[in-house]
């Protein structure tokens, strides 16, 4: 193990500090500052800041030709109130690190610590702390940043902690591992009326009542079926919060999922046709917009082989688990520039689920994740 007991304690304290000060997608300025402060003393690293927003990259360059390995973690927290008695619980009302990105960021700091003491023999290691993963905009923004050309990798790796999976075990496979998804916002506009004379207005109530079950009926199958689709209504609103007004406007938010990107266009078209028919039948105006767009994650076989060798070398049990999973991850955009692979590290079968208000990243995972990544680095770059 390349980390001392003192290192582990300092990394835990760092993670707890991040946890106390969560920032949601696009707002990670102070989180990025804390990352930079932690890695700046490591003189062997060059640092890029402000990538795609608040992204940070630490580059460890051997000065000898060789491949560039990128390892990604996320900076952002969630707009969810944390329910915890822990000393390091969130100090920010309505926000919390309830997905473990504070832990993933700490794993990269552990790697930075190890690489500063024992540099690689050739090539480069890029440690990327990426902003705005939760809303799907961060990876795209980093890739679009002109400075990304300076750190363009030959292969990219990432992990995600996974409650429900036995502690310290890993799920890993080639091919699709996370589904494509996007949020579809449907707005229906009619005309308000006095509640005593609803016939003088144009209410979207019937259209909403028709659309919600029709949209959810688009769901079929389950991963790994290539024709898997899932439509989940996540929010609906109708009219004003008043007893005297018959509604004139409504919104339905639905999350659409497919196993791979190729199926998303057809699912969107079908959902749009349903919305258009409901609006037309009711004489309503229709507006549709898309948000939180995630491409599917697909693990490249060669990158998976390197991870499997690292897991075996570190005696970390692994299998395919229940992959692919229905959840999405914006790490999928990295495959547009290089082969990539993500593995899923078990947080415990009974651990609170991701995005639950009582979730907290298990600190014991930091050493495991760091050992696996460091093994991949040493295998490739010496």
Written overview of the protein:
- The chain has helices at 5-20, 29-39, 101-117, 138-144, 205-216, 264-282, 301-313, 365-381, and strands at residues 45-51, 55-61, 68-74, 124-130, 155-163, 170-171, 175-178, 180-189, 193-194, 229-238, 245-246, 249-258, 285-294, 297-299, 318-319, 340-348.
- The longest helix is centred in the last third of the chain and has 19 residues, at 264-282.
- Helix 3 (101-117) links the parallel strand 3 (68-74) and strand 4 (124-130).
- Strands 1-2-4-3-5-16-6-15 form an eight-stranded mixed sheet, with helices on both faces. It has a four-stranded antiparallel sheet with strand order 10-12-8-13, covered by helices on one side. A two-stranded antiparallel sheet has the order 7-14.
- The chain is elongated, with a radius of gyration of 23 Å.
- By secondary structure, it is an alpha/beta fold.
- The protein has eight helices and 16 strands.
- It has two domains: 5-178 and 296-381, Zn peptidases (Aminopeptidase, 3-Layer(aba) Sandwich), CATH 3.40.630.10; 180-294, 2-Layer Sandwich (Alpha-Beta Plaits).
- The mean pLDDT is 97.
Can you tag this structure with a few keywords?
382 residues; Aminopeptidase; Alpha-Beta Plaits; four-stranded antiparallel β-sheet; 29% helix
């Amino acid at each position: 193990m390349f980390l001392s007991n003192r290192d582990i304690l300092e990394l835990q304290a760092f993670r707890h500090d991040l946890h106390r000060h969560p920032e949601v997608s696009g707002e990670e300025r102070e989180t990025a500052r804390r990352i930079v402060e932690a890695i700046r003393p490591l003189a062997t690293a060059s640092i890029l800041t402000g990538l795609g927003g608040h992204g940070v990259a630490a580059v460890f360059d051997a000065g000898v030709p060789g491949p560039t390995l990128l390892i990604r973690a996320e900076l952002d927290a969630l707009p969810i109130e944390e329910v915890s008695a822990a000393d390091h619980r969130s100090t920010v009302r309505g926000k919390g690190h309830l997905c473990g990105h504070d832990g993933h960021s700490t794993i990269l700091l552990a790697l930075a610590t190890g690489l500063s003491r024992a540099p690689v023999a050739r090539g480069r290691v890029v440690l990327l702390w990426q902003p705005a993963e939760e809303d799907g905009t961060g990876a795209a923004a980093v890739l679009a940043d002109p400075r990304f050309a300076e750190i363009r990798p030959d292969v990219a790796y990432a992990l995600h902690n996974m409650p429900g999976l036995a502690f310290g075990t890993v799920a890993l496979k080639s091919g699709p591992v996370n589904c494509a998804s996007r949020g579809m916002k449907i707005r229906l506009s009619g005309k308000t009326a006095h509640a005593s004379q609803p016939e003088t207005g144009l209410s979207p109530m019937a259209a909403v009542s028709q659309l919600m079950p029709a949209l959810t009926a688009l769901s079929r199958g389950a991963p790994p079926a290539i024709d898997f689709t899932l439509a989940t209504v996540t929010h609906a609103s109708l009219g004003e919060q008043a007893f005297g007004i018959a509604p004139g406007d409504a919104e339905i938010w639905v999350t659409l999922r497919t196993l791979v990107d190729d199926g998303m266009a057809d699912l969107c078209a079908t959902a749009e046709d349903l919305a258009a028919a409901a609006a037309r039948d009711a004489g309503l105006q229709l507006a549709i917009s898309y948000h939180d767009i995630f491409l599917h994650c697909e693990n490249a076989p060669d990158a998976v082989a390197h991870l499997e060798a690292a897991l075996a070398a570190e005696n970390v049990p692994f299998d395919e688990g229940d992959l692919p999973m229905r959840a999405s991850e914006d790490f999928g955009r990295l495959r547009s520039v290089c082969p990539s692979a993500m593995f899923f590290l078990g947080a415990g079968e009974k651990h609170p689920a991701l995005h639950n208000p009582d979730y907290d990243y298990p600190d014991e995972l930091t050493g495991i994740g760091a050992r696996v990544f460091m093994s991949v680095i040493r295998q490739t770059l010496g």
